[in-house]
Structures are given as structure tokens and as C-alpha cells.
What does this fold into?
Amino acid sequence: MVRQESRPLSEDEIDGARLDSLIDDMLETMRDENGVGLAAPQVQAGLRVIVYEIEPNERYPELEDAVGPRVMINPEIESRSREQTTNWEGCLSLPDLRAPVPRHESIVVEYTDPDGDQRRIEADGFEARVIQHELDHLDGTLFIDRVRDTESISFLREYRRYHAEAPADDDG
Ligand code: NI
It folds into this structure.
């Protein structure tokens, strides 16, 4: 499932109870795994839904500003900054790997919220990174596909040994 392209939800589906239970399942899974984000294909649902919630926890003690939980249905990136930054990421679907991944520093995203309302937000920094990581999941793309130098892909054990001061990674 994580390598397949997910399909958009119809308006009827956005009103439906099945979506509510999917969102509950995604939030619960993300929190159980101490992740900051999750995409529906990671819980075996091939639908264009992502969730994220950024708050300080034992793995991200340096994060101070809480964001979310936010649910994005049928999200689309409308614009991307030219500037990119590279930072370490991980993924709940590849639990033992870490790698530096370039992402656009800021993005504008349009999406439908669970009430069926159209929303548009600008995100930057770590939040923009999380959204780009999760949106990639909807197209079957994993963070290792975005790595510029495949030799930089590290096992978690090596990452902890050599990059202990590296900024927070994105486990989603
Ligand atoms: Ni992921």
C-alpha cells in the first residue's frame, strides 16, 4: 500500500462516518508511535488523507510550539518556495532508517477539512517538511526516494552515534 497512489475522496465520503473512523485510527497510530504525521496509506487506506500534530515529546524535546492536530483531505501544494533546506527524516513505514532530505522551506497548501470546508494555509520550516513528507506518501513516494546521496541513508543506530546533535527528524 505504501508504494501505491492514493485516490481523492468524494464529497459524500467526506461527510461519511467511515472517514471519521479512519481519522481516529490515523491519529491513534501516529500518537502510539510517537510520530508527528501519518498518511492514510500507512494504515492500509488508499485515500488522500494526512494528519499531523507537532508538539514537544520525548523524541522532539526541542520543539516548543504545538501545531495541530490537523487533518488534510485531498491536499494539494499550490506553491513552493524556491529555497530548499536539507534535514534528517525518518518514517514510521521504514522504522530503522534516517536520511537527510531536501524540502522546500515554505509551501502553500489547499485542502478540505473534516467539516468539508476548503482551507488554505502557508507553512514553513519543520511543519512544511512534515506536510511534504506526508503528501509524498499519497503518491507512493518515500523519503529515501528524495535523498540526493544514497550513501547518506543511515541505520538508526549509526544516526544516533554520529548525528546525535542533528535536529529533529520527521517520523511520519
Ligand atoms: Ni513517512
